[in-house]
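Re: duplicated header lines in exported structure tokens

Our pipeline writes sequence and tokens for each protein into one text file. With two proteins the header for the second block appears twice in some exports. Here is an export where it did not happen, for reference. First protein block:
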Amino acid sequence: MRSDVGQFDFVSPASLDAVLERLAAEPGVHTPLAGGTELMVALNTGRLQQHSLLNLQHLSELRFIRVEAEAIHIGSGTTFTDIRRSEAIAIDLPLLSQAASWTGSVANQNRGTLGGNLCNASPAADSPPALLAYGATVTLVSSHGTRTLPYSDFHLGYKRTALRPDELLHTISVPTGWSGYRQYIRKVGTRNAQAISKVALAAMARVDGDRTSRVIGDIRIGAASLADRPVRCAAAEAAVRGKLVNETTVRAARTALAGEAKPIDDIRSTATYRAHVAANLLEEFLRSLVG
């Protein structure tokens, strides 16, 4: 059933400080609204529980891309179009640039924000696998101060995050300096565009040694739709780190990924399909390392 919009308040404080003051004074009352691409779906289907929308879209304090020597800092209000158009992100963080191009239509990318994508906390979201592989951190703000945590600790379960009722996601900081890594990202969906992923995988690896004895010196794997939240595949990483790139390593990676993956059956796919395809994607990446 569609929600009655007449029952909703729309509050638009003039500054970030005013937003944080409102959240502190009335924790749990307001739903922050950035691009609104997800919230409008919930509104149209009658699933939006909180009836006060707190507008963030006009806040320049949350919309920025700041390039520094060792990281690129992205404001939570930065749109996917902003990310796609950033030359620095395309060069230094190509997995994130690619993921941004997958996020809905061009209209969605013009409105949808990186912070909204993360706070919506869908296990199938497009941007998390890349951010997990890159080892991003997130900075959360409230009227009481700021705190920073690894992005891998941000998602606590299905649609649950580490955000407190009086906090906002302010900055996503992504380390750079991956020129020595082979990078890979794949999304499998019903269509090539405008489809929620059945499974997605982002992976990076540094290969040491010569062509006859290539060893995986480091590897990082992030995945979507393999659990109740976006996940870093630590067991699969550990199974191949420091190992030769060969058939034994490929089998070990598939086995480890199968052990840690906990996908579900839903309207888009089955758990069996998701687990098998994710293992195929990981194998595809590992085999590319010897090319």
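Second protein block, exported in the same file:
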Amino acid sequence: MSAKRVLIIDDEDDIREIAQASLELMAGLEVLVACSSQEGLLKAVAEQPDAILLDVMLPDMDGASTFQQLQANPKTRHIPVILLTARVQPSDQSRFAALGVTAVITKPFKPAKLATQLLDLLHWEQTRSSSL
């Protein structure tokens, strides 16, 4: 069985690297990365990941607009999207929920918990023990 593939779209190098390491080492996932919305949209179509971790605050296009473009494309609308955000106000949470995303993970996240959190949200089985 091949590993599930997750696309991380985030403009912050450290967030991408930490999330990638967590998902690869602790859950055995294959991780693809993009540092802008445009790059992420292209990779989502080309690579067909099993899920997308999408930052809300991106310089070229915000996460909500990026999600709407993913939903508008028949090639990507089936991919579950989890938003990554530092915005935790109730009004922000309500807006994100109204978009129809799969879930929201708040920043800063705990690297040791990110893999488990993602697996739980997507109802995926862990493919590697988290003995780290």
